[in-house]
Design brief:
This protein is α+β, with helices and mostly antiparallel strands. The protein has eleven helices and nine strands. Helix 2 crosses helix 3. The relative contact order is 0.08.
Length: 269
C-alpha cells in the first residue's frame, strides 16, 4: 500500500476527483502519459480490491477504511521520527526538527485522542528526557553566545590588522568613480587590465589591437574611466581583471568584485 499512498493522499485532498485530473497530477512522474495511465490503472485496481477506493463513473473517492489506514501510518511515522531524533547522540543539534515534530504531535493530539494514546505507549522518551534536552539546548545557546562575542572581537582585530576583505557591487557610475578615487589615492596615473585572451582584449578594446600580443593592456586613468563606462553599458561575459596595487578588481557581467586589505578597500555606499 505504501507505494500507492501518494494516490490516496491526492484523492483524499480532492474527494470525487475525476480520473483524467488524477492522471494529469501523476503524469509528470512518468516518461509518458501511457506509462502513467498503466500505472494508475494498476494502482486503482489494487486499492479498490483492498477497499480503500470507490468509483462512481469516472469520479474517485477515498473510503473510511483508507482514511483510518492513512491516519494510522501518519501517526506511526510521526512517532518513529520523534523517537529517532530524541535517540540521536547529539539531539541538541536536532532541536529545530524536534520542536517541529512535537508541535505536530501536540496539535493533532488535541483533536485526536487516539494519537495521544499511541504516543504514550510507543514513544521511547519521557518528559524527563525533554527537560534534559531543554537544559542542554540552553547550555548550547549560551556557548554560542559566548563564541559569537569572541568571534565579533576577532573580526575587529583582523580589521585592525588589515586582513583581506571583499566588496561586491554593480558596475555603474558610482563604482567607476570609486575606482578612479582609489587609483588617485594610490598615486596611479594608469590602470592595468587583464583580459581572458588576446582575442577578447582586441574585441572589447579595439584600440589595443596590434600594439602588444598579450592579454594585458595599460590605460591612462582618463582612458580607463571611459573604458569602464563603456563596459557598464555593454554587458560582457568573460572576466576582466584590474590591478590597482594593492587592490585586485574583477569585472564580469556588470559585477565588480574588489579584494584587498580592509583599510585600502574602504567603503562604497
Amino acid at each position: 500500500m505504501k507505494a500507492n499512498n501518494p494516490i490516496l493522499l491526492i484523492v483524499l485532498q480532492n474527494q470525487g476527483i475525476h480520473y483524467n485530473d488524477l492522471l494529469n497530477k501523476l503524469s509528470s512522474s512518468y516518461s509518458s502519459t501511457n506509462s502513467a495511465r498503466a500505472a494508475l490503472s494498476r494502482a486503482l485496481k489494487d486499492l479498490s480490491v483492498l477497499g480503500f477506493l470507490t468509483r462512481k463513473e469516472n469520479h474517485i473517492y477515498v473510503t473510511d477504511k483508507a482514511m483510518v489506514s492513512l491516519q494510522s501510518e501518519m501517526k506511526n511515522k510521526l512517532i518513529a521520527k520523534l523517537n529517532e531524533l530524541m535517540a540521536s547522540k547529539n539531539n541538541v543539534k536536532e532541536i529545530a526538527l524536534i520542536v517541529q515534530q512535537l508541535q505536530v504531535l501536540i496539535q493533532r493530539s488535541k483533536n485526536d485522542s487516539s494519537l495521544l494514546k499511541v504516543s504514550r505507549t510507543s514513544t521511547n522518551f519521557y518528559l524527563k528526557d525533554l527537560k534534559k534536552l531543554d537544559k542542554n539546548t540552553e547550555k548550547e545557546i549560551n556557548h554560542l553566545i559566548y563564541l559569537k562575542k569572541i568571534f565579533s572581537e576577532q573580526i575587529k582585530e583582523l580589521e585592525e590588522l588589515d586582513f583581506n576583505d571583499l566588496m561586491e557591487k554593480e558596475l555603474n557610475e558610482k563604482t567607476i568613480e570609486f575606482i578612479e578615487k582609489k587609483a588617485k589615492e594610490f598615486n596611479l596615473n594608469e590602470i592595468s587590465f587583464e583580459f581572458s585572451s588576446v582575442e577578447e582584449k582586441e574585441k572589447i578594446l579595439p584600440e589595443a589591437e596590434g600594439k602588444t600580443k598579450t592579454n594585458k593592456a595599460v590605460l591612462a586613468l582618463t582612458e580607463a574611466k571611459e573604458f569602464l563606462k563603456k563596459l557598464s553599458k555593454n554587458p560582457f561575459k568573460n572576466k576582466i581583471v584590474l590591478y590597482l596595487s594593492p587592490l585586485k578588481i574583477e569585472l564580469k557581467e556588470k559585477k565588480v568584485i574588489i579584494t584587498g586589505p580592509y583599510t585600502k578597500i574602504g567603503v562604497l555606499k
